[in-house]
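Hi,

I'm pasting everything inline rather than attaching a file, because the server keeps stripping attachments. The sequence lines come first, and each chain or strand is labelled.
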Amino acid sequence: MSSARLERWIERKLRLRHVELVAELYDSRSILKAARRLNLTQPTLSKALQDVEATLGLTLFERTNRGLSPTAYGEIFARHAKIVLAQLRHAAEELESLRVGYSGKVTVGTLLAASASILPDAIARLKKERPGVTVSVVVGTYDILMPSLLAGDLDMVLGRLPEEGRKRELLYEEFYAEPICLVTRPGHPLLRRRRLGLRDLVNEAWLLPLPETALRRQVERAFLEANAPVPRNVIESVSILTNRVLLRKSDCIGVMPYHVALDDIEHGLLSILPVKLKSIETPVGAILRAPGELPPAAAALFEYLRLAAKDVPSARL
DNA sequence: ACGGAACGCCTGTTAACTCT
DNA sequence: AGAGTTAACAGGCGTTCCGT
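And the predicted assembly:
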């Protein structure tokens, strides 16, 4: 299809309905499932999809007996469809905010680092100021949250910022530098040792983040820099609940962002091992879609995040 | 234990029809 | 004309059954 014809098609034939359908089909990977969610029957949706594809002259989804799989064209159309829908939701929120005062919804993706420090603080401030705003927090890893951010499902992602491989279509704002500390249960025999380095800890049991994470690589680099072999006795877990209990009930050594550990340390539930890890300090901040303006509720939360970041206590290691 | 046939389930499409 | 429905049908995959 020529671009002129395509533009005319968008003006005359493309309905918001089509955009909605393609987005739903993309998410559910099945005509039947999408039809159920949209309260339509399967043949209707099948036909609607055929209409869109016929007019575009492009196949958006390959049909299989296991459902749909998006083609390269489908990937592009669905990505834009979701952004258009998110934008319209934000428009509705903004209108509603104006009508009733403060309201709207913010959806935040969070990685471990920000969860314990600035996010609860910022949410508390936001809710105090704007009780009508709904805040939805999604916890996940970088790999899971970034596609959601790009697709318009999340307003922002908080956490440790990647230092390489940053995307041009995203904005990165650093809030503070997060040191990493080694933690154990209080009363751990190692805490009585006067001089302690990574080389003394190689044979201990370690509780480490998963191998594909940046933090894990940094820890392993720290061992290399200390001329020490990487520990062999390792438990891999990203479950903060599991980790906290495990640390308290065993003698293993954990690796935690300082501000995640801080609350437990202040309550005497964990202790910091006096080992210097000077090379492990990474920026914590927010990732946003660029350029697009944040909807009002999300913009408000973002401002409170900036304020909360200023109050983050500096590390005493 | 292995391999093939039969079957049901799930997914999709087309055709004919109704309603607005 | 457009959007929806029901009915009938086609095809792939996994499971079950049965013979070797």
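Residues 174 and 285 of chain A are 4 Å apart (CA to CA).

If the labels don't parse on your end, tell me and I'll reformat.
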